[in-house]
Design brief:
Distance between the termini: 23 Å
Number of helices: 3
Low-confidence stretches: 13-22
């Protein structure tokens, strides 16, 4: 990507003017809520905590899709093909307060890993 700052600013502008229409919560493969915390680990992976209750997270875990890291986190792996773009969107939604839908890879008994992201 040649101009990440321009992309970041354009996305931030779009997030600021578009209304949030998603409803917070989780299905068997998607959690939709604002980003509460981003944790960058030494190896480059990012743990994402959304504003969700334990019962909302339990919907995904009870479906056998995956297990939240530390009980509350979905992971964006450094090796993800769209890592930089997804990270930029996550940072923008964190600071704008907008909801984001995180689609996870179905990996029973493993950590919940981001497949793709949808902003609202």
């Amino acid at each position: 990507m040649k101009h990440p700052i321009v992309l970041s600013l354009a996305c931030a502008l779009l997030l600021a003017i578009l209304p949030s229409v998603a409803s917070a919560g989780c299905s068997s493969t998607v959690c939709t809520a604002p980003v509460e915390k981003l944790v960058l680990w030494e190896g480059g992976d990012i743990s994402i905590q959304q504003v969700l209750s334990a019962s909302e997270r339990a919907v995904m875990e009870n479906a056998g899709t995956c297990v939240f890291g530390g009980g509350t986190y979905i992971v964006l792996r450094r090796g993800h093909a769209s890592f930089q773009e997804i990270y930029a969107l996550l940072v923008m939604t964190k600071f704008s307060g907008a909801e984001v839908s995180l689609r996870v890879k179905p990996t029973p008994s493993a950590s919940c890993e981001v497949s793709y992201v949808v902003t609202k």
